[in-house]
Amino acid sequence: MKQTVLTRYRVMAYITAIWLLVFTVAIILKYGFETGDTMVISQIHGLLFIVYVVFAFDLGSKAKWPFGKLLWVLLVGCIPFASFFVEPKISRETRALITDRAPEPVKA
């Protein structure tokens, strides 16, 4: 597995988590104080979450995670603040699987 797979996941985990917090505040403002609109924020978060899911699946398949762990990582992306605690743990676990060196040529 290459470093870029983990980096893509990490970046999207943080971006998606921040947008989820923004979306949560927008929902509280809209329904709690009857101000603001959530349409644009929800659409941006939805698109970012789709990219997060794709990158999490990519990381999970290359790290050979069991289905339960993959489902847990995807579920964490739906809970405000959870990604900030789970992402560092996932990163530590998968760093051992990273190999950036080029494969050795086959000798004939």
Task: Throw out a few tags for this protein.
108 residues; mainly alpha; 4 helices; 74% helix
Please provide a written account of the structure.
- The protein is elongated, with a radius of gyration of 17 Å.
- The longest helix is centred in the first third of the chain and has 31 residues, at 3-33.
- The protein is an all-alpha fold.
- The two termini are 26 Å apart.
- The mean pLDDT is 88.
- It has helices at 3-33, 39-63, 67-76, 82-95.
Estimate the helix proportion, in percent: over 70%
Helix tally? 4
Shape: elongated
**How many strands?**
0
Low-confidence stretches: none
Estimate the mean pLDDT confidence: 88
How many strands, which pairing sense, and closed or not: the largest β-sheet?
none
Layout of helices and strands:
Elements: H1 3-33, H2 39-63, H3 67-76, H4 82-95
Helix pairs in contact: 1-2, 1-4, 2-3
In short:
By secondary structure, this protein is mainly α. The protein is built from 4 helices and no strands.
